[in-house]
Amino acid sequence: MDIKGSSAIVTGAASGIGAAAARQLAALGAVVVVADVQTEKGEALAQEIGGVFAQVDVTSTEQVEAAVNAAAEIAPLRAVVNSAGVGWAARTIGRDGQFGSAHDLDLYKKVIEINLIGTFDMVRIAATAMSRNEPDADGCRGAIVNLASVAAFDGQIGQAAYSSSKGGIVGMTLPVARDLSASGIRLNTVAPGLIDTPIYGEGPDAEAFKAKLGESVLFPKRLGQPAELASMVIECLTNPYMNGEVVRVDGGIRMPPK
């Protein structure tokens, strides 16, 4: 699928994997709507790549719809990358046997709301806009890539909420791809492993910590780079025969319990 001259939306685009995907989409000739809650970083990236910034909290359908409308007004919306997400760690029960020490239920709901429901909300709204596009030679009107995580398969201790949310993204992949096929829209999921993003901090201590983490990767023994993930995202968007698939990009890692 040729996305040159089209618009694209990337959620969570102000940093990390989302920013790398936005840059690569822009390099292919798409006008990218940088959708994020981080205004300063989002506006800076949009200026850098010739895109536009949209303030988007993915738990707000109103803001999701505004971003989709903004993209569709620029050019036909043909590519969407759902990269927005959060991850807080908490054990399911505490050590003192008290109900109050169990996993905070509101925290669990919040992770699901952002990572899973927010992803689906953007999918359903963006795909609706894509369904109005003129099809290409293959009959394709657009493509969507959702970002899951290897935690969907190898969830660690404390990742109940995060793994649930990412497992939900994996689980929706095939049924949603089947739903959207009638409108000529493809949907795939990319599941990253350990990726070098700002979540690990900066400085010598952070670098040492990342190097230690990288030792658990099968090969190469390092953290992945956002651009390496973004290249797979772009492949899933542009390869016309990629559909309904979940692809791990993780250096062969299988996460241990902790």
From TrEMBL:
Keyword Oxidoreductase: yes
Molecular functions per Gene Ontology: oxidoreductase activity
InterPro entries recorded: NAD(P)-bd_dom_sf (IPR036291), Sc_DH/Rdtase_CS (IPR020904), SDR_fam (IPR002347)
Domain of life from the UniProt record: Bacteria
Sorted UniProt keywords: Oxidoreductase
Matches recorded under SUPFAM superfamilies: NAD(P)-binding Rossmann-fold domains
Keyword Oxidoreductase in record: yes
Family designation: Belongs to the short-chain dehydrogenases/reductases (SDR) family.
PANTHER family from the UniProt entry: 17-BETA-HYDROXYSTEROID DEHYDROGENASE 14-RELATED, SHORT-CHAIN DEHYDROGENASE/REDUCTASE
UniProt name for this protein: NAD(P)-dependent dehydrogenase (Short-subunit alcohol dehydrogenase family)
Native species: Nocardioides ginsengisegetis
Taxonomic lineage from the root: Bacteria, Bacillati, Actinomycetota, Actinomycetes, Propionibacteriales
